[in-house]
Design brief:
By secondary structure, the chain is α/β, with parallel strands linked by helices. The chain contains ten helices and 14 strands.
Length: 320
């Protein structure tokens, strides 16, 4: 049986953890692609040595030659400049657009049948750019954002309630930024709707509001604390999506996906619940949103469209 091949474009903090988790999950053979050949090769050698200690199979290779991507089943893109203190994800548009355009061309050339997961920020704009530049089907290009944002919401709620985070289920919709939309109405704790949890007095409405705000600013909180973007949770979120595809798990996950028709949208990448299986994004799920929820969602989509406009302007000026 042919082993799967995982291409990790960017061998930085997230890329390194993706390489480790790929091995721990037994996803297949891993290749690191990075402009810094030493970093890519060094992490692959380190992980090769880890394999016998942890009892892992598979292989890790690294380098700066894009031909390493040839035949990849999954490509996870983390390359680009991470956030620094005082920066928003939006500040990264111009520099990361150049990186993503280059990667898209290489994926189109060497592994056009791959399932691509984009993690580079600003996420919704970069995943849309990648799809357009690569020409890959929209069902095979998706952004990792909602899984991470929802995980933060779940973790913060579990901490406040004193329960296991596994028992908290929820969705975060919209763009991956400060305008994201945590949806308490579609949240439950051990099957108990969050609204009832609040009515029971287990969680105050004011506490819930604070948790929603903390979720929206979860990335900035990490950047402020350690001076750079998060990497453990983003990598784990990307692996969750890769597993769903490679193992045809039919997982219902919030991701930055191409939405055409649903939610009243016409051709834009934004965070919505989707079904991921062997066909990639096999279905976009349209939730019934309240008037206030739809207002927040439309505002978040509007911000994504504004950034897409910035990207178009940079292209017209010849800057990307």
């Amino acid at each position: 049986m042919k082993r799967h091949k995982i291409g990790l474009v960017g061998a930085g903090n997230i890329g390194g953890i993706l390489g480790l988790l790929s091995g721990l999950e037994g996803l297949g053979d891993v290749v690191f692609l990075d402009l810094s050949e030493g970093v890519a090769c060094g992490k692959s050698v380190d992980l090769e040595a880890l394999a016998p200690v942890m009892g892992l199979s598979g292989s890790w290779k690294g380098g700066s030659d894009a031909s390493l991507l040839e035949g990849c089943d999954v490509v996870i893109v983390t390359a680009g400049v991470p956030r620094k203190p005082g920066m928003s994800r939006d500040d990264l548009v111009e520099v990361n657009a150049k990186v993503v355009k280059s990667i898209a061309g290489n994926v189109s050339r060497y592994c056009p049948d791959a399932f691509v997961i984009c993690i580079t920020n600003p996420l919704d704009v970069m995943v849309g750019l990648f799809q357009r530049e690569s020409g890959l089907p929209t069902s095979k290009v998706v952004g990792m954002a909602g899984v991470l944002d929802s995980a933060r919401f779940r973790a913060f709620l579990a901490e406040a309630l004193g329960v296991c985070a596994h028992d908290v289920t929820t969705f975060v919709l919209g763009g991956h930024g400060d305008s994201m939309v945590p949806v308490p109405r579609y949240t439950s704790v051990g099957g108990i709707p969050l609204s009832e949890v609040v009515e029971m007095g287990w969680l105050k409405a004011s506490e819930l509001e604070s948790i929603v705000d903390r979720t929206r600013n979860g990335g900035a909180e990490v950047v402020g604390l350690m001076g750079t973007s998060a990497y453990f949770a983003p990598a784990a979120s990307g692996i969750l999506m890769a597993k769903a595809y490679l193992r045809d798990e039919k997982r219902l996950l919030p991701c930055a996906a191409y939405v055409e028709g649903k939610y009243g949208l016409e051709g834009v990448y934004v965070g919505v619940p989707v079904l991921i299986g062997a066909g990639g994004v096999e279905k976009v799920i349209e939730l019934e949103l309240s008037g206030e929820e739809m207002k927040l969602f439309e505002s978040s989509v509007g911000h994504v469209r504004e950034l897409n406009g910035v990207l178009e302007g940079l292209a017209l000026e010849g800057k990307i």
